[in-house]
């Protein structure tokens, strides 16, 4: 799910959900930067997923080498 600031509209997955009124340029820029950071994947989460993927692969390889994998 992504959130965007388009003009003065806030969109959630390309659907307008809110409109900004009476907001100064500085606050709008700060909000836009915050939204852009929110849309970027969290580095720590990606690192954790990478570790999990490696562990799954290692477990698979270990099971395969022990003859524990099933064949149809």
Fold and architecture overview:
This protein is of the alpha+beta class. The protein folds into 2 domains: 1-40, no CATH class; 41-72. The protein is built from 2 helices and 3 strands. It has a 3-stranded antiparallel β-sheet with strand order 1-2-3. A hairpin with a 2-residue loop joins strand 2 and strand 3.
Topology overview:
Blueprint (H helix, E strand, L loop, with lengths): L2 E4 L2 E4 L2 E5 L5 H15 L3 H23 L7
Antiparallel strand pairs: 1-2, 2-3
| Mean pLDDT, all residues | 82
Would you count the extended β strands for me? Answer: 3
How does the overall form come out from the CA principal axes? Answer: elongated
- Helical percent range? 40-55%
Proportion of strand residues: 15-25%
Secondary-structure-derived class: alpha+beta
Specify the number of helices. 2
What is the ordering of alpha helices and beta strands? EEEHH
Supply the number of structural domains.
2
Distance separating the two termini:
38 Å
- The low-confidence parts are none
Q: Rg to the nearest angstrom?
A: 22 Å
């Amino acid at each position: 799910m992504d959130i965007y600031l388009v003009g003065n509209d806030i969109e959630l997955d390309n659907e307008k959900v809110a409109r900004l009124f009476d907001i100064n340029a500085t606050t709008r820029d700060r909000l836009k930067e915050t939204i852009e950071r929110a849309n970027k994947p969290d580095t720590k989460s990606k690192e954790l997923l990478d570790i999990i993927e490696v562990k799954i692969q290692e477990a698979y390889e270990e099971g395969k080498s022990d003859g524990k994998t099933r064949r149809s």
